[in-house]
Amino acid sequence: MASTSELISRFRADLLSKLVTSTLGALLIIVLARLLTNTEYGLLYLTISFFAVAKLFSKFGVGGSASRYIAEFKEADPTQLPHIIRVGLLMTVGLVALVSLVVAIAHPSIAVLLGEEQLTDLLLLGIGLIVFSTLLYYVRKVLQGFEAIKISAVVSVIETVVKFVCAVGLVLLGWGAVGALMGYIAGALVASLTGLGIVYYKFYRMQDAASKMESGLARRVAEYSVPLSATNAAGVLDKHIDTVLVGFFLNPLAVSYYVVSKQVVTFIETPVSALGFSIAPTFAAEKSAGNIEHAAEVYESAFTNTLLLYIPAGVGIFLIAEPLIEIVFGQDYLGAVPVLQVLSIYTVLLASNLIAAKALNFLGRARGRAIIKGITSVLNVIFNIILIPRYGVVGAAYATIITYSLYSFANLYLIDQEIPIDVVKLSKSVTIISLISTIMGIAVYSLLQYISGLVSLLAVITTGLLIWAALSTLTGFIDREKILTIIN
Known about the structure:
Order of helices and strands: HHHHHHHHHHHHHHHHHH
Oligomer: single chain
Number of helices: 18
Radius of gyration: 22 Å
């Protein structure tokens, strides 16, 4: 059973990694928004969104399935671990080769279908992104299965640093959107090869392998990848198909507005993403050991602390959306303000759901989650097709909110079936947190008129944080001793 100190150590490592990667990622987005034209920026992220969808087929849930069985067999029968790693990698390489071939053949037709012939070169170059980002995904999942969260964190930092340096450097050299995409590929290449080396020398070669793989285990790894792939597909559709549809129905300028707004939300989700990634394997271990009550306590604590951060964050984003976009990205991106205000609700939904979603994978409920995610993702596509032509880029944000709300509540229902959650206790916590957020929001709203630049914007944000911290401490949500334990 993982101790509290071990969970804190993992969380701290992955949080630090995600803070570095998210900060550099956000800085990269801002720099590229300033260096590229709106059209180039929109084309770049339209390409990246397309490849996020294409990678569904190259990943196909194999990494997640291998991770689940690694977490299970590292206690039950460690001699099977090398076989699981090898089989998962072979499946991944085969899928990567197939998807890359299809894109190489079809990329001119894809550019025409999207109505942007300028995408042709970017789509061909982006095959490298499919190859190396898929391998990187597999590596990180394998490390997660071994609960090697710190190593996984290092690999993520390597990718982000290399990506940032190469993308900015190549754009400054005049390579435009092509140079930026090459930077993304370089980051994935270096990180994936580094990660594969670590997996081989630290986990694959050091494990005593059984003479042969357990009968049926390869089939089980392949089968469990199916519901995970369906869930991942639905998740990627939720996060990226809307961007593709905005490009299809509107134009690259609208894509740039939508991407800027979603990137702000992505940056905000960093802490809860780290928490979910760190503790997810623990649920499988605790349930397997019969410690179901402890698993429930871990989830309730994580859920409450997540909402304590993200309900106020959603309120704050809604209120400061206009000065934030204008000061950070420039007046050319003010069209993103209403999109960001709508997506401030998505911030809360996304955060509350990340822990539940990752936990369900390790609790063996991937199939149920996949069904729900599939249904809501299809609805998301339908709502996007209906709302984007009618409401423009804001319509895509409306579609996201509607469908993700349904998905979040369904995931909470599945969690409640697996571990005994105290719903009454959580409801009381949410009520108090909402009151804290309202008081903080009133204070921030009264200060908006004084924002005239970056310094005053940061001052208003800091004031909101101080009010939130004071109220959270008074209500007992923040414990100074626990905070100091995490920091130290």
